[in-house]
Amino acid sequence: MDGLVFGLCALIGLAGTVLSAREAWRQRDRSDYRVARFTRAVAIGICTLGVTLAVPAVEDMIESATGMNNAAKLGAHICAVVWCGSLQLMLVDWSYNHEVLKASLFARAALAACVLLAMLPLFVSTTDETVEFTTEYATVPGVTVYLMVYLGYVAITCGEIAFLCTGMALVARRGGHAWSARGLALSSISAVLGVAYAASKGSYLVTHYLGHPWPLRYEEVVSPLLAGLAVISLITGLTMAMVGRRLASRVAVSAT
Fold first, then answer.
1. How high is the pLDDT of residue 31?
2. CB within 8 A of 168, min separation 6: which ones?
3. At 159, is the secondary structure helix, strand, or coil?
4. Burial (CB count within 10 angstroms: exposed 0-12, middle 13-18, buried 19+), residue 44
5. First to last CA, the chain
6. Per-residue DSSP letter, 128
7. CA quadruple 67, 73, 79, 82: dihedral positive or negative?
8. Predicted local confidence at residue 155, as pLDDT
């Protein structure tokens, strides 16, 4: 299941990365160049790397090459944190005015840095050849704490992403930018799926701690599916919004 889901995500992510990087490069000399164009390309590229590391065959190859157990999982989780942070920065740049933009960007970057600084010591103190950083090893306290820190950040950031995308979609729709509105609406749905993914894994960890977990076999199917759907719909939605903006600008130029 993981190989199929995350392999498909990696292919779609590669296409989205190429398109976003090309757009950011094309716009680099514009006087109104914004952080959002760069962070969009970074977010999709980091996401693609993260889902590639989550493919079981790639995971085994990375661990064999590095000689470090859980190396690929740590890399995938770091990519997820950077991905969510980059998306926040992109949407904040699109949504906030310049008076509060710098403070908003620094606050979200600082939150991502704090999460990574909390995750790394937990990883180092917990990892060994008998432990995997998955819900299957929820009996190991370090694994549970590590995953809850990671999942808590994913839930918080995806919640804000869903809120911002919904607001921007409504503005785009009122402005007559149909493709942008659809892309942002799809991005909002993907962020909700991201919250659902964090809730799925997190609820298993919490109920396991309380002594009444729901069946692990269900969690191991539901969580990857939610993560895969979130990644695919987000990349698709951001690409639609990007293409929609380009089409709108071309129509405006041709109309003049």
1. 47
2. 91, 94, 95, 184
3. helix
4. buried
5. 52
6. -
7. negative
8. 94
Q: 247: which 2 tokens?
A: 């089409």
Nearest alpha carbon to residue 135 among 177, 73, 71? 73
Secondary structure of residue 2 in the 3-state scheme: helix
The alpha carbon of residue 235 and the mean position of all alpha carbons in its chain are separated, in whole angstroms, by: 9
Q: Which tokens hold the place of 103?
A: 């403070």
Query: Which of 84, 74, 54, 220 has its CA nearest to residue 153?
Result: 84
The answer to whether 198 and 158 have CB atoms below 8 angstroms apart is yes
Query: Residue 76: which of 56, 95, 98, 99 has the closest Cα?
Result: 56
- pLDDT over 70, % of the chain: 85
Which residues have C-beta within 8 Å of that of residue 240, sequence separation ≥ 6? Answer: 179, 180, 182, 183, 186
- pLDDT of 152 reads 94
DSSP state of 127: -
Using CA atoms, how far apart are residues 250 and 129, in angstroms rounded to an integer?
56
Q: Rounded mean pLDDT of 140-144?
A: 92
Residue type, 193: L
